[in-house]
Write a structure and sequence with these properties.
There is one protein chain. This protein has 19 helices and no strands. The chain is an all-alpha fold and 396 residues long. Helix 8 packs across helix 16. It is globular, with a radius of gyration of 20 Å. The chain starts with a helix and ends with a helix.
């Protein structure tokens, strides 16, 4: 599969694409509205960051209990149910007078549901497309995410100037309902990819199998850690620029779009494996500028440039799929998604805590330095594993 035109000629790809657009728009508008609502109530960078990225913190629990369902549930039914569950949860967040502990309880439930959704969604994409088309297809979805985040954060920022955060949350809930209906009406009913009932025990067994391979372990860590630490920087946009956070998020999404177009469509396949470390380095380095407390235009430029580095995840996911049996593709991609989002939630909490003790700009600089350190460490470990004799040592 060599072109975007080929993708959209593939049966079911277009409705799946449109459904994802509605879901991403709902997630973007709802996240910005919730972060703004919590910051307005608490004036806490930590609570604001965790409210936006808190569902990711629950991913680790879902990844250890629910993830076996990614390949053992009918994809259309599972995705429809997940969309409706998010609609209900987001509507609850809009209830006036909901206490802060209630907000975070709902956020926790959203994260548990989302931990299953990633595996079902990307396993279905791997099923709709041939295996050699996965990277191109995923790049389109990453570009979609970038575009919808640009539009969603811009629209969310504009809506928040004329509507209350709670009203914006209801708009988000309506978009989730649209996504669920589109899934039910636009996709074909498919059987589960593998037999058996979902269970916590089966989730643990498959996680152990996937984690048992050193190349897969290093790939997972590369997908989770540098990315998550940089999202910790992004989680502080609201506290860094309370009245212009939507602009920073939109610029970051624009950079991510550019990176995905470049990696997914323009870079030759033979060159892609060499780009992971350079892109991860680019992902963190521009945030070092925040030590200077840059004004909004320079901060927005740094966010856009850094986000080009998110294209590294496409290279890493391609490697993960090459290392994983087809029947475990949904679980493997779900583990990637859950681990990445969990790390993003942890990093948001850490970044918010550091910002509370210092400043948002200082916390962003420190998170970027941590990301660069992790990238260097993982690159060194991968290089050593490829040295002569390393494979024999691992087998002995």
């Amino acid at each position: 599969m060599r072109s975007y035109r080929d993708l959209f000629r593939t049966p079911e790809f277009t409705p799946f694409f449109l459904v994802s657009a509605a879901r991403t728009a709902g997630q973007t508008i709802g996240g910005l509205a919730l972060g703004t609502l919590v910051y307005g109530i608490t004036a806490s960078p930590l609570l604001s960051a965790v409210s936006m990225f808190g569902p990711q913190l629950a991913q680790v629990l879902g990844a250890t209990v629910l993830l076996s369902g990614a390949d053992r549930l009918p994809p259309r039914a599972a995705l429809t149910g997940i969309g409706l569950a998010f609609a209900v949860a987001t509507s609850v967040l809009a209830v006036p007078g909901l206490p802060i502990w209630g907000v975070f309880a709902v956020v926790l439930l959203q994260g548990l549901v989302a931990s299953l959704g990633g595996g079902v969604r990307w396993g279905l994409l791997n099923e709709i497309l041939s295996k050699d088309g996965y990277l191109l297809g995923r790049s389109v979805f990453n570009m979609l995410s970038g575009l919808m985040q640009i539009a969603g954060f811009a629209a969310g920022g504009a809506l928040l100037t004329v509507l209350s955060p709670r009203t914006c949350l209801l708009i988000s809930a309506a978009l989730y309902v649209t996504s669920a209906l589109g899934t039910r009406l636009g996709l074909t009913a498919r059987p589960p990819r593998t037999s058996g009932r979902p269970s916590a025990g089966e989730t643990w067994r498959t996680n152990t199998l996937l984690w048992s391979s050193r190349p897969r372990r290093l790939t997972y860590l590369g997908l989770w850690l540098p990315n998550g630490l940089v999202v910790g920087c992004e989680s502080l946009y609201v506290s860094y620029a309370p009245h212009a956070a939507g602009a920073l998020f939109a610029c970051g999404a624009l950079g991510m779009f550019a990176g995905d177009v470049t990696v997914g469509r323009l870079v030759p396949p033979a060159l892609r494996p060499r780009l992971a470390v350079p892109l991860l380095t680019l992902l963190a380095t521009p945030y070092l500028l925040f030590v200077l407390h840059p004004a909004l235009p320079l901060a927005a430029l740094a966010a856009a440039l850094a986000s080009v580095g998110f294209g590294a995840s496409l290279v890493q996911q391609e490697r993960l799929m090459a290392l994983t049996p087809d029947e475990l593709s949904g679980h493997a991609l779900g583990l990637h998604s859950s681990g990445m989002l969990t790390m993003q939630g942890v990093a948001a909490a850490v970044a918010g805590s550091v910002a509370g003790l210092t400043s948002p700009a200082t916390a962003m600089t420190l998170m970027a330095l941590a990301s660069l350190g992790v990238t260097l460490t993982l690159a060194t470990a991968a290089r050593r594993s490829r040295e002569p004799g390393a494979a024999a040592l691992q087998e002995s």
